[in-house]
Amino acid sequence: MTQLILLGPAREAAGTGRDEVPGETVGEILDAAAERYGTEFARVLARSQVWVNSEPASRDSRVGPQDEVSVLPPVSGGCAEEPSVRSSIA
Amino acid sequence: MTQLILLGPAREAAGTGRDEVPGETVGEILDAAAERYGTEFARVLARSQVWVNSEPASRDSRVGPQDEVSVLPPVSGGCAEEPSVRSSIA
Amino acid sequence: MEVSTGRDWVALSDEPLVPDALSSWAVRPDCGAVVTFSGTARNSSSVPHEILALEYETSTDLALGRMSQVVALARTRWPDLGAVVVHHRVVRVDVGESAVVVAVSAPHRDSAFLAARFCIDALKKTVPMWKREVWSGGAAWSEQCEDLVDPAQL
Amino acid sequence: MEVSTGRDWVALSDEPLVPDALSSWAVRPDCGAVVTFSGTARNSSSVPHEILALEYETSTDLALGRMSQVVALARTRWPDLGAVVVHHRVVRVDVGESAVVVAVSAPHRDSAFLAARFCIDALKKTVPMWKREVWSGGAAWSEQCEDLVDPAQL
Question: What is the CATH number that goes with domain C2-134?
Answer without folding.
Answer: 3.90.1170.40
